[in-house]
Amino acid sequence: RTLSPNHLNVLAAMADVIRQPRLAERLRLRQLRLHPDSFSALYELAQTHAQRKQYDQALPLARQAVQAASDATRPEALLRLGTIAAETGLVDEGLQALHQALRLDPTLYRAYLTLTRVYWGRGDYARAKATLNRSVQMTNPASFIDLAILYTGILESEQQNEEALSWMRQMVARYLGDI
C-alpha cells in the first residue's frame, strides 16, 4: 500500500520525535520521490544534512526548499538557506538570504542572531551591534535572552564593558521596568 506524502511527513516527524533520524531521512527521501517539490521534505532534509555537516548535500536541498516554499514558509526557508550558506563559507549568499527573510518577516529573531554571528565572525562589530539593536526593536521579549547573551559577548570581545552594562540596563528597564 502506498502512503500519501502527508502520511510520510507525519511518520518522518514521529521518527524525529523518537530520535530515529535515519528512519526520518528514509521517509523524507521517499516523500521526495513521490513529490519532488515537497517543501517539508526538502526543508527537513536540508537541516538533517547541515546538522551532520554534510553541506554539499544540505545547500542544494535548502535552495530547493526556498523554491518550493509558500509565502508563509518562505522566511523560514530563507533563514535555513542563509544559515547553511554562511556555514559553508558562502557568506554573500547567506547574507542575501537572511536579509530577504527579514524583509518578509521582520520579527524572525533567529535571522537576526545568524546575521549578527556572521558579521561578528567577519570582525564587523559595528554591523553586528546594529543588527542586534534592530532585533531588540523588532522581536518579542521571549527572544531577549539569546539576543542579550550575544550582544554582551560582542561588547565584551571589544572590551566595552561600560557599554555592555548600559545596554543591559536599558533592556532591563524596557522589559522589566524598575527593579
Task: Describe what you observe in this structure.
By secondary structure, this protein is mostly helical. The protein is 78% helix and 0% strand. It has helices spanning 5-17, 21-34, 39-51, 55-68, 74-87, 91-104, 109-121, 125-138, 144-157, 161-176. Helix 5 packs antiparallel against helix 6. The model has no long low-confidence stretch (mean pLDDT 82).
Concise summary:
The chain is mostly helical.
Features:
single chain, mainly alpha, 10 helices, 78% helix
Structural class based on helices, strands and sheet pairing: mainly alpha
- How many helices? The count is 10
Distance between the termini: 63 Å
* Global geometry: elongated
Report the biggest beta sheet as strand number plus sense, adding barrel if it closes. Answer: none
Radius of gyration: 19 Å
What share of residues is helical?
over 70%
Please state the average pLDDT score: 82
Spans of at least 5 consecutive residues whose pLDDT stays below 50 are none
Strand content: under 5%
Taken in chain order, the helices and strands follow as HHHHHHHHHH
Question: Could you tell me the number of beta strands?
Answer: 0
Helix-strand blueprint:
Layout: H1 5-17, H2 21-34, H3 39-51, H4 55-68, H5 74-87, H6 91-104, H7 109-121, H8 125-138, H9 144-157, H10 161-176
Helix pairs in contact: 1-2, 2-3, 3-4, 4-5, 5-6, 5-7, 6-7, 7-8, 7-9, 8-9, 9-10
